[in-house]
Each structure stands twice: as structure tokens, then as C-alpha cells.
Amino acid sequence: MSEVGEMTSNYNTAQSYQPTYMEASCIEMNYYPGIYPYEDETFESMGIGLIGFLNQAGLNSCSEELANFETLFPVSNFNFAEDEYGFGVYVNYFSGTGTSLSYNSFGAQSGATFEITEVVSIDCVIYKCVEVTGSFSCRLYNDSDTSDIIDVRDGVFKLVIQSFNNF
């Protein structure tokens, strides 16, 4: 079992990330905020994916994202997604060492928790943004060797999520 130390970042200095499409329709869009080193992959990185939240909200078009953005990430508990195409949350971690070990939460998650505890709208000029705060515990599996695991306990996050569409 691997061990990870504390990771913190000020989102104002973190690299900016757009949501990503997994399919041709923006309804299949996923949001992946996190702590990623700017142009230096020797540092650790960690991300949280919010998969299928537009589709789960019952939105039928890309234009509905802006009108409903503040409600897409409600204060609530969420399950972990089984893969990158399902609804739920996803956590990944890259060791940043010379071996660049990669871990993700796709796998058995018995007793895992993910809770959004606060959502605040913030100004992002031409995009809509929310600052999402919460806590989580989960198991991360090495992409190359699933017997190599990291148990994350009492994790906390404060992330900025930016809309794909702008005004």
C-alpha cells in the first residue's frame, strides 16, 4: 500500500482546466478540477472528476448549462463512478516521481464517501464558476497493478468548477 502526504493548492495559482467531452454531445461532458502542476510533471497531482452531472440533471442541450450551472453540483452525498462513462465522482492521483505512478478510484469502493458540503458562485469574468467544498474517503488503484492501492481517509477539497459555455 502506498502513502500520500498532504496536498494543498490555492486555486488562484493553479492551472485553469476546461470541462471535457467524453462523447459528441455536451450533455456527456465531465468536469475535472484538481491540483495539477503547471508544466512540471515531476510534482504530484490529484484531480476529482464529476462525471455525467449535466445528463443526471436532465438537461437536454448545451445551452441549458449556463442557466442551470449553480444547481449542477448540489450539497449532497455522491457515489463513485464505476468508469468514465457513468454518473458519479472520480478521483485520480499521479505520484510525480520518476516512475510517475498513476492511481484512480475506478474499482471497489466499499465504505467510500464523497460529500459536497458547500457551493458558492464566484466571478470568472465570461464563464460561470462555482467554488465547491467537501470531503471524501476512497480507495485508489494503481493503473498498472491493481494490488497496489492507496486508501484516502478524511480527504477535504475546495475546487473551482468552470462552465464550458461562456456568456
Structural features:
167 residues, mainly beta, 2 helices, 5% helix, globular
Order of helices and strands: EEEEHHEEEEEE
Structural class of the secondary elements?
A: mainly beta
Mean pLDDT: 80
How much of the residues is beta strand, in percent?
35-45%
What sort of overall outline do the alpha carbons produce when their principal axes are compared? globular
**Alpha plus pi helix count:** 2
Low-pLDDT stretches are 7-24
Distance between the termini: 46 Å
Largest sheet data:
8 strands, antiparallel
Short description:
The chain is mostly beta strands and about 170 residues long. The chain contains 2 helices and 10 strands, in the order ββββααββββββ. Strand 6 (about 90-95) and strand 7 (about 100-105) form a beta hairpin.
